[in-house]
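Annotators were shown the component list below and the corresponding predicted structure, then asked to write short factual statements about the assembly.
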Amino acid sequence: MSGVNDMMTKQSDDVIVKTVSRLLIPFMQIYALYVIAHGHYSPGGGFQGGVILGASIILLVITYGLDNALRKMSEKMNTILCSTGVFIYAGIGALCLILGGNFLDYAELDQILHVGIAHARSLGILGVEVGVGATVMAAMISIFLDIATGGLPSKEKNIQGKRA
Amino acid sequence: MEVTILVQATDRSFEILENAREKSKQILDTAARLTSESQAVHRKRVEAIFKGARQTKREITRFTATFIILFGFWLLLSGHYDLFHISIGLLCCGLVSHATHDLLFANPRAGDMRVIVKRFITYIPWLFYQIVLSNMHVVRLALGPKNLIDPKIIEFKTKLESDISFVTLANSITLTPGTITLDIRDGVFYVHAVSKKTAEDLLTGEMEDKIAHIFMEADHVYVQDTLDIAPVFVALK
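Structure shown to annotators:
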């Protein structure tokens, strides 16, 4: 089974693929964040942007190998992002409950933000979309890593999740 | 008396000139050696990308350059130019720049980045002109007598060093109709050309020369740039 891990740690040996993918990844992420932020106006929203964000990290894994990609986005960070997204979503819903309305009744957020009810609803939706985007990105990456590593845990003790 | 002093002075000055010549020869030898170690340096550079940047000033310039480019891209994508969306854009570009600035600007480069960008922008019209010329040639091949079509695979060793210049050359070759880059291995390009004329146009090396001029590599190395870049290579080792 260690053969699967060796295959994923190998980098692509084509210089064009490596260079173009590393130049493209920041633009992919900006496009994903644009899709999330403009979900109220153009097609998109949280889920779609999250998938594009996940795809950018998956591209990093495919071209540069598992070790290098895990240095950029460790599995620990991945799990934290996943839970943080859910926390944001449920947190905004619970905040509306605490302020006196129903669950996810964003109009109650006007008591904190003071921008008008319609605007408060819009901002509430944007907030939950951000949470959805984070969770979807983490879920995509973790699904891919599970399939790629064959379910084996990465040698996280040797790979520093933090930058050196 | 004065003659001996004069002779001594000239001897001494020749000595100084000799030392200077030796030193400059050594520096150029080091530069040639460093810039021709493609494989090991490239692997080290990839590791340096992912271990994170160490020099803070270089990191700050990279961060701001990445931020500006990504924010321009955001403004292009988003049609809304009101305060809310622009502030979201600033926040998102800041996050992405922090995470990926060492991906976008990976190589320490000889020479000023602004000069390189300017030269790159002036290279693009020349490339368009080459595309138009090759297009007309391919149209003549397609519509005319078929005995001019003579496909072959050329291999040539390139004098360029960094990965961005490889990619620029490979993409330029593929963009001009008639030639396609198949593979790049160990600094050797494998290109498929559809006729003798396109192969000859490629093998004159004019495109490679222009790209070496953009990125200040190969024969276009300037001595001051080599002296500037030498401590960076020492730090990378």
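Statements collected:
1. The mean pLDDT of chain A is 87.
2. Chain A is about 70% helix and 0% strand.
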